[in-house]
Amino acid sequence: MKTSKKESESTKVGLAQWYYHFNRREVEWSSDMFQLMQRDPGQGPLLLSEPNPYLDDEQRVILVEWVRQCVRNVDQCTGYLKGLDGKGRRLFMRITMLPLQAKDGQVEAISGTLEEIPEESYQTSELPGNSSWYLHLINHLEEVVFSLDAKGNGLFVNTAWERLTGFTMPDFILIPFIHFVDPEFREAARDAIHRLATCSTKPVNLQLKMITAEGDGVWVELHARCTPEPTAIGQITGTLINIHQKKESERILHNQRIAISSAVEGIAVLNEAGKYVYLNHAHLALFGFKEEKELLGKSWKILYDDDEQQRIAQEFMPIMQEKGVVRFEARGRCPDGSRLYQDICLTSLPEGGLICITHDITEKHKQAEQLEEMALVANLSNLGVGIIDLKGRVQWLNEALLNRIQWEGQNVELLPVLSLFGQAKPEPENVQRVKKAIKQAKACRLEFSRNSSQGDTSWYLADLVPVADKHGKPVKLIWVENDISEQKLAASETRLALERERELNTLKTQFIQMASHEFRTPMASIQTSIDVLKHHAAKALNPENELRKTIERHHDRILIEIQRMTGILSDVLLTGKLESGNANFNPMLTNPLELIRSIWEEEQLSYIGRKVLIKSEGTVRLAMFDRSLISHLLKNLLNNAFKYGKTNETPEVSVVFESNQVVIRVSDKGIGIPEQEQKNLFQSFFRASNTDNIPGTGLGLTLVKKITEMHGGKINVISKSGKGTTFEICFPDKKLTRSKP
Q1: One domain for residues 523 and 615
Q2: Number of domains, the chain
């Protein structure tokens, strides 16, 4: 804004100053302006050319035209206005406007003044090139009338513009026309304006969308022409005609045609003679035709056999003539000879003829036929069979199921599905499972009992299974039940037998525990007695005495046998506990390598002069082991390695820390195990055929396998007769942490 010019205008006495910037839409009023219009400054200034309470539409149009002339001529202009002030008092005013130019020479703002004058000084003058009555006429047109300069900027627009777009007339002045055009049509509008501005084309007629002040789109028909000799109107003049309703109607009609053409139902229109005048693709495809010309102009009767034509004509056409609409099922004939079952709705048209809407129900008929066949088979079956709808209501039951629920009525349809449980109240869990299966259309299995009229109880296993149509949509559920009373009885007897066996095992375990305990007392007494004999012999006889040597030799033999008997009793006792499930199992984080070393430190006194090679692979980690049970396991394997190995060979124990498991291997180079006997190795009391001269109970490896399985591990045996044996035990890597070896 050029302040100097505004200030120069304000020096006039009694003048109310105002200012308007076109692009920024800035409006400024002086205090005199607020006073003149009797407007509260708190309400802010407004543009008089917009709808306002001070000037009517005709005066606003005159004001806009003066602005246009002022901008076009880039010169000061003066005119007269009449209106009302904020209190309703009549005002007669003289207006003076001065265009303000930017650096590029384009007009960017208007600086003006308003001066109240006596009514007798008011003049109704003709505007240059335009008369007031002409403007009045233009502003009462329904069409938008506009003019643009050579660059496509707005110069003039009538009040219909506000009604069409919601933008005001000042919003149009000096703004590019394409600013109001929908982006989709701007390129076409820009090209048309360019050609019109150069007068290189005939008048332009376009259909395009304009953008409203609310951001919506409105369809218009643009008619514009070039004025070869620029006048006061502008380089381009034109009109915009609102065709939005027409375009919307066309769009709706087009969509309706697409919907009818794409509809799944067959739709056709027949004339009074019953001949096709229109049919959609679905109607063609329904009967197996490919092109419209195959049916257009032909009678509907060619699609039906003679007997079906007569049935339709006699039973349904009279109803349609009476009520104007009829619905029925019919059996059609396709060109290839196949049969087509249809659901047909006929509606008569006011001008004659009718609309036919039909869809294929052949699959429905096939399913009905299949259901009849299934019902015939189901009634001959001992299985209880029923059909349930998706609301949980019975549709059909076979005779076996009717007899089981003791239904004596004539009709079972619409009975609730819970009635299939019979007279007894079903268990809440079964009720919930049935309701969930019906609600989600998912299969479920139920076990329940029914009581007969004689008081007998029978057990049943029922499956509730959804049935889907060809599109995969569930349409019903099938109830199929089987009498499992005999299986339940057998299971009950088996359960009793297992309980008896469990009681026997408990008794056996108790006996073994008692016997083991009772054996320990005499064994301890025997050991005490031989220790006393050895002590007295050593005290009474010198070391070279033969009697003393004999006593000491037999003392050592008896002690070894006591230890052997004690080991056997420990194995028997632990076996009993493991088999009965009474063994304590307390796994804790353990270093496997340190555990093996500590076990060997305890056991090496029993193997004087023998050694064990202990080694590891991978990063040592802690594992969840029951130290007591794993100790028993390793002692058994070490004992076997020494017992069945060669005297001059050293057994090996290795611990391998793999990514997902810990592997313990115990190897010897002894007599090995015959290949055909290895499958029986872990059975209780089994001993290989090549161990006859070596003492043992056949319980050690049984214990090893049970302890391994308690830890979730697996045991493998690699053995060859005369070459030695390797026991490989793999423990899963559960809750392992790193540790230093």
Answers
A1: no
A2: 5
